[in-house]
Amino acid sequence: MGRERTPTRGLEAELAKHKGIELHGGSIRVVFMWRRVRFRESLGLPVTKANIRHAALLRAAIIHEIKTGHFDYSRHFPNSKNATNHSQPKDDKLTALVARYKPLKAVDITPMTEEKYGYALDICTELLGQDRLASILLPEDIQLLRTKLISTRAPSTANHYLATLAGFLAWCESNSYCRKGLSAACIRFATIGRDPDPLTKSEFEDLINKGCLHPQDSAAITLAIYTGLRPGELCALAVEDVNLEAGHIHITRAITADGTFKVPKTGKPRSVLLMPPAAEACKNLMALVAGDTPRSIEVYMNRYESRIETVTPLLSPTTQARKKNINWWFIPTSWNTKWAAIQKRSGIRPRRPYQTRHTYACWCLSANGNLAFIAKQMGHKDFTMLVEVYAKWMDEESSGELNRIWNNLQTGMSLKRPQLKQIDQK
Fold this sequence. Notes:
Blueprint: H1 9-17, E1 21-24, E2 27-34, E3 37-42, H2 49-68, H3 73-76, H4 81-86, H5 94-106, H6 111-128, H7 139-152, H8 155-174, H9 201-211, H10 215-227, H11 231-235, E4 242-243, E5 248-251, E6 254-255, E7 261-262, E8 270-273, H12 276-288, E9 295-300, E10 306-311, H13 332-346, H14 355-366, H15 371-378, H16 384-389, H17 391-396, H18 398-411
Parallel strand pairs: 7-9
Antiparallel strand pairs: 1-2, 2-3, 4-5, 5-8, 6-7, 9-10
Helix pairs in contact: 5-6, 6-8, 9-13, 10-12, 10-14
Domain Tyr recombinase: 194-403
Protein name: Integrase
Keywords: DNA integration, DNA recombination
C-alpha cells in the first residue's frame, strides 16, 4: 500500500496560516462548526498554495453566513450527504414563516387586532434579520432583541411585541421550524402599573363650565364621568340604547379606531343604571339628535359573525360640524382630540380620556359604594379588578367604613350569642 504524500514545507507553512483547513486523502478539506456540530467537507482540489487560500476564503464565507443566519449547506456542498440531512427549505427564513403564520393566526382575531399583530411581527423580524433562518436562532438572539426593543420603546409596547413574537415562535417550535425554548426566551419586562388619576369635583366643574363650548360636549363628559363607560362604548352609544323610564342604558357595542363596531370588551352586553346627572345628560343628548335619521351599522361578534342594527348615534360629530361630509360616529381617536381641547380650555392637568372611567370608580368607592355593584356597572367579571386597581381609594375609606360598621353594630343591630351544639358523651 502506498503512503499518503507528505506536503512540502511551503505548503505546511501555508496551511499553518489558515485555521480550519486541513489535508485529507491528498485533497483539501474545510472544517467548521454549525449547530454545535463539527463538519468536515472535502473540496476535491489538489494541494496547492492557491487552492489552500481559496479554501480559506470559502471557509470564511461559510462562517460569516452561519453567524448571520444565511448558511445553506446544499449551495456550498450539493453532493455531500450532509446537504440532504441538513439542507434548509426555502420557507425556513423568518420572512417566509411570518407570511405563512399571519393568515393562520388571523382566523382567531379581529381585523384590527390582526393589523397590530402584523405590525409587531414585522418589527421583530426586521430586528432579528428578515433573511435569517429560523432553525439557527438561539435564545441569545431573543435576548438581544429584547434589549433593542426596550431601548426605544415603552415597556408596555415592548411587551406587546414580545408576546406577539412568542406566539409566532411557539408555532415555529410546534412545526419543527426552530429549536425549542425560543418562545420561553420572550420574557416580558416588569412594569409598574399606573395608579388611576381621577378628576376632582372642582376639576370636573372646570371641564363643564370652562372647557365645553357646546351642550353636546358637557353632556357627553357628564355621561362618561357618571357611568364609567369605556371611550369606545361611549362613542358607540345609540338613542335606542337609552331607557329613561327604567333609568338605565344598555351597552351592546363599542367602536374601534378604524370605525369598526364590535361587542364590548367582555363580549357580553350589560345595563348601566343612571345617576341623575347621567340621566339628564342622556336627555340632553337625545334632544340634540332628535331629528337625525337612524343609520344601518354592522356589529362584529367575532371575525366571521356579525349583526346588522339600525340605530341613531347618541353622540355624533354631525351635531356640531360645519362640514357636510363627516362621520356620523365619533371614534376613540377623534374623541381623544376633542377631550384634549376641552381640557386645555378648562386649564386642568391633562389626562387620558380613560380617566373618566377611573373617576367613576373612585368616586363610587369614596362614597362607600358596594364593590359587586360597581364592578357590574363597569362591566367587570367580578370585583377583583376593583380591589387590585383601586385599593388606594378603598384604603383611604377604611377607617370611616370601620366607624360606620361599629355604629351600626351598636345602634342598629342586636347581637345574638351563637348556640353551640352539645356533644353527647357516652
